[in-house]
Structures are given as structure tokens and as C-alpha cells.
Amino acid sequence: MACKCGKGEIYFARNYEGTKLCKSCFVRSIEKKVKRIIRLNNLLERNDKIAIALSGGKDSTTVAYIINQIVRQRRDMSMFAISIDEGTGKYREMTIKKSAMLCKKLGISHHIYSFKDELGSSLPELMKSNPRLNACTYCGVLRRDLLNRKARELGATKMAFGFNLNDEAESVFMNFVFGNLDKFLRLGPIVSNKKIKKFIPRLKPLREIPEEELYAYCDALKLPYYKRKKCPYGKESVRKTIRTYIYDLEEKYPGTLFQIVKFADVIIPPLKEHFQKSGEIKYCTICNEPSSQEVCKACILLRENKKDKLR
Ligand code: SF4
Ligand code: ZN
Fold first, then answer.
1. Does the C-beta of 231 come closer than 6 Å to ligand 1?
2. Ligand 1 contact via 135 beta carbon (within 6 Å)
3. 196-to-211, 227, 304 alpha-carbon distances in Å
4. Number of the ligand 1 atom closest to the C-alpha atom of 230
5. What is the number of the ligand closest to the CA of 226?
6. Which of 16, 148, 188, 268 is deepest in the core (most CB within 10 A)?
7. In the predicted model, is pLDDT for residue 308 greater than 50?
8. End-to-end CA distance of the chain
9. Residues with Cβ–ion distance below 5 A, ligand 2
10. 117: part of which helix (H) or strand (E)?
11. Higher pLDDT pick, 184 / 197
């Protein structure tokens, strides 16, 4: 059976809408969906300088590639990529190598920052001094903080991330299960707060694209991305338990992931009106970065390791 275009052979057996597509129709369908999310949510505007948080995996590779298609046609926009090296050895070396290859292919600048140089310690060193903590807790908080700081220093107006449909559904479910209303209300295609000048708005243009379609997209275009070994530090986590559970639901009831995200999109705006505190804008008393508390999470973690003096 041929694709609906009547030309190509089937490349992707069944996309999320249940359609069988040839390679070029499949690639076009992903780009169309991502550009639609960007357009409907005004993710990109005139004079934007977009930082891509480039991890070297399929998701951020796709974001960089599609945003580059848009930026190339606009004189009033520019982009660059930032990668963070947590010091996790071979795995990170390989992802950074792939990221560099992609940036070269796209003709965009690539900025690499390491935990060791910027924070004084690599992730393995931080873990040694506090082995009770989950590596992903350190890594997530410190990486987000560093990305925001560096993107701002490099003049970015927005920062794009590769969160896909699976990631977003997991986040909705996690915040629901743990009753984390504040974090739940911050979900959506753009996370921004105009009152916090130091916070670079975060874009999630892939939040409606399932993970397996992103692998297929990068493979179809032969984009350089790292797909073999996973990070050696990503062991058991709550997110993994939630992931197993909702993927099981998706398997039994196709469309579950999409429904979870869409349901959140419907209830977040009215909930925001009722529950979101206007809240005083705070800046960390140690590093002066935006924070919901007196001392930001990154500084709390570093202080626990007696590293705050190095920031
Ligand atoms: Fe960091 Fe955890 Fe991701 Fe590894 S799996 S890169 S430790 S957040
Ligand atoms: Zn701080």
C-alpha cells in the first residue's frame, strides 16, 4: 500500500493520527505540526534571538533543525546553541560531538559550558560528596540554572527545549500525583514571566510530538544525534515509575498521552486565574538569579556540598 500522496513507499507505519506515510510526507507532517504549535502560541516573534538547549539527543536536534528552517528565512531573527557538560564521561562526550556536528551543518554557533568550569565541580564530584541525593536532582536544577544564565549573557530572548509529548504528559501526571500546583500551572508551550527580567522564556515546540516520531524524523533526515547509551547516572526515579505507568496506558488506550496534555491545556488557564499568586519577584541572595525562595535551589544544592563559595 502506498502513501496517501500516491508516490512514496511507506516509511512510518502509523503516526499518531493513525496514518501511514512515505518518508517525505512523514517529514513534512512533523514540520507542519511543530510550525503550527509555534504559530498558534506565538512562540517566535520579531527580533528574537533564540538559544537552543542542545543535548545531542533526537529531541533538541529536531528543535534546532526546524527552528533553523524558520530563522533562515527571517532577517529579524537569529539563533545559537548551548550545550552543558556535566562531566558524565563518554556519554556526554558523544552527545557534545553530535551537537557540534549538527551546529556545523546548520551554520550556527555552539557554546559549551561545563559544571566543572562554571560551578567548580563536575556531577560525579558533587555526587561523591552527597551520595544520598539522586544525580538527576542535582543535574536538572544546576543545568537549568546554568542554561538560563548563559543564554541571557549571550543575549537570547528565548530558549527552546526539546520536550516531547511523552515528557509533557509525564510532567502533567507527576505534578498531579504529587499535588504540585505551582509547577502544574507553569506547564504549557511557553514558560515565561515578563516581570522577571533575568528569566529567559522557555519554549517547548515539540510538546505534541511523540517520542518515536522524533527518532524517525531524525533518522529520515540523517541528522546527527546520539541514540545509543543513556546517561549512566539516570537510574531509578519517580519520573521513570510514572513513565512506565502512562506508557502502559498508552499501549492499551492509544491517544492517552495526547489526552493528558490536552486536558491540562484546558484546565490550566482557569486554574491560573484562581490559584496563581501574583507573588513578589525574588532573586537569590547568593547568586542573584530569579528564585521562588530567599536562596535558589541551585545554591542550596551547592551549599550543601560546601561549594557555594565557588559560584
Ligand atoms: Fe542529568 Fe539525570 Fe539526565 Fe543524566 S539522566 S543527564 S544525571 S538529568
Ligand atoms: Zn542562587
1. yes
2. yes
3. 32, 36, 26
4. 5
5. 1
6. 148
7. no
8. 60
9. 284, 286-287, 296, 299
10. helix 115-119
11. 184
